[in-house]
Design brief:
Blueprint lengths: L21 E6 L4 H19 L2 E7 L4 H10 L4 E4 L5 H11 L7 E4 L5 H10 L4 E6 L2 H4 L4 E4 L3 H4 L4 H9 L26
Parallel strand pairs: 1-2, 1-4, 2-3, 4-5, 5-6
Helix pairs in contact: 1-7, 3-4
Length: about 190
């Protein structure tokens, strides 16, 4: 049984300066292509806005190969797999477990499951919460909802642009400084266990 008293208290945010990294919690897909095309451009965009960012990635299952490749793009990233089971219960449980992060920004690059993702971002205590919502009810959990009911229309544009538009709807093309890049020397040879 959880002690829910005070669980949803408003968190104070540290001012952004050179000594203070912006904490970003992000719900991502576990597929490598989706990570590279959706999350990496968005993370690069956030770094161009906030400067230093500490990224906390939450994704659906524990795939070690993806963890290593994510570290090629963001070596200091924190990566947390979400256990399988009822997605509402598991996301809520994860959010309560990781409230210690006290994130400044919470974003979901996953366009599916808007209710689950909104609940997670709200429950983890992110000060600024960005995600796609399909209706007005779930938008109440976010302070920056991306109201877009027809997901099929979103899929008619580049997927990286979709994730950038969750954060900033005015973006019409992916800026060149947001393109994925990494040091090829950091990739370790794949060793199946």
């Amino acid at each position: 049984i959880f002690n829910l008293k005070g669980m949803f208290l408003k968190l104070s945010i540290k001012p952004n300066n050179s000594n203070c990294a912006t904490k970003v919690v992000m719900i991502i897909r576990n597929y490598l292509g989706d990570f590279i095309t959706m999350a990496v451009p968005l993370c690069n965009h956030l770094q161009s806005i906030y400067g230093k960012c500490d990224f906390y990635f939450f994704y659906p299952d524990n795939d070690i190969r993806n963890k290593e490749l994510i570290k090629c793009f963001f070596p200091d990233a924190h990566i947390f797999p979400t256990p399988s089971g009822n997605r509402y219960f598991q996301r809520f449980k994860m959010a309560i477990t990781y409230r210690w992060i006290k994130p400044d920004v919470g974003i979901s690059t996953v366009l599916n499951y808007p209710k689950t993702n909104s609940l997670f971002l709200f429950a983890i205590g992110a000060k600024d919460r960005y995600a796609r919502v399909a209706n007005k009810f779930t938008s109440k959990l976010l302070n920056h909802p991306f109201i877009f009911a027809d997901i099929n229309e979103l899929h008619n544009q580049p997927i990286g642009l979709c994730s950038l538009q969750v954060f900033d709807q005015k973006i019409k093309e992916i800026p060149q400084n947001c393109y994925p890049s990494f040091d090829i020397n950091k990739i370790k040879p794949y060793n199946p266990k």
